[in-house]
Amino acid sequence: PVTAVILVAAGSGQRLGYGMPKAAVPLGGEPILMHALRGIVAAGIASQVCIALPAGEQELRRLCEDFRLELVDGGPLLTMVDGGASRADSVRSALAAVEDGTEAVLVHDAARALTPEPVFHRVVQALAAGADAVIPVIPVVDTVKTVAATEGPAADIAPELVTGTAPREELRAVQTPQGFKLSVLRQAHEAASGFDERQAAAVTDDAMLVELLGVPVHAVRGASQSLKITTPLDLIIAEGLLEGPLG
Ligand code: CTP
Ligand code: MG
């Protein structure tokens, strides 16, 4: 399918704590955004890459414009938009700039800058085979429990009480790029634009909006190298991946 990739890079990077947008933070001497962008182009699946940048960020915009000049004939169209207050707002801004004639769209976190090419291919292959929605996943290594704030005498002992244990074999950690038939993702985000603040805050990926429409979401194998650079520890791991045998 004619495929656009939305690259969301408009976050502020609070947890990384560099005092600059996360996409601008250097990894192996180059901004995280550039690694993500090169990865998408190298995968060779995109007719268009639409990047949501922090509003008013000039330096990243300039780097993207320079990168555009490096693209050879037949490479993807590069589009830049201002992102929004939430990740979903950034996706919606980028969706509005997706070219006519596009059939499928992948939504990818700039923070997953080291995503291996085969992951892009697995997602696109599932779309080509007829999936309306597809996400890359990996098994969960930790046991996952639900908790609630403690009340009454229990609160004197600990702040939270365990309410259940999820069966680990059924759990998957979800990554990006998440792939969708364009019309399906547009419909899902239109529905979500009417959410109140509490509902909007609960939206952590695009697939969950599609799930709310009742559309089946397929899962393909992701990769541990696709880690989302979120904390300083993640950045150390990403630096190691670049230098090590996996880089
Ligand atoms: N993102 C975005 N627009 C936002 C918020 C997030 O485009 N308003 C993007 C980020 O740039 C990132 C991806 O969504 O590539 C995943 O978000 P996250 O890892 O949470 O990044 P930040 O929001 O920047 O980090 P933090 O939550 O620590 O501030
Ligand atoms: Mg965030």
From TrEMBL:
Any single GO BP term: isopentenyl diphosphate biosynthetic process, methylerythritol 4-phosphate pathway
Residues under site feature: Transition state stabilizer: 15, 22
Catalytic activity: 2-C-methyl-D-erythritol 4-phosphate + CTP + H(+) = 4-CDP-2-C-methyl-D-erythritol + diphosphate
Domain of life: Bacteria
Pathway(s): Isoprenoid biosynthesis; isopentenyl diphosphate biosynthesis via DXP pathway; isopentenyl diphosphate from 1-deoxy-D-xylulose 5-phosphate: step 2/6
InterPro entries: IspD, IspD/TarI, IspD/TarI_cytidylyltransf_bact, ISPD_synthase_CS, Nucleotide-diphossugar_trans
Keyword Translocase: no
HAMAP family reported in the protein's UniProt record: IspD
Function summary: Catalyzes the formation of 4-diphosphocytidyl-2-C-methyl-D-erythritol from CTP and 2-C-methyl-D-erythritol 4-phosphate (MEP).
Protein name, entry field: 2-C-methyl-D-erythritol 4-phosphate cytidylyltransferase
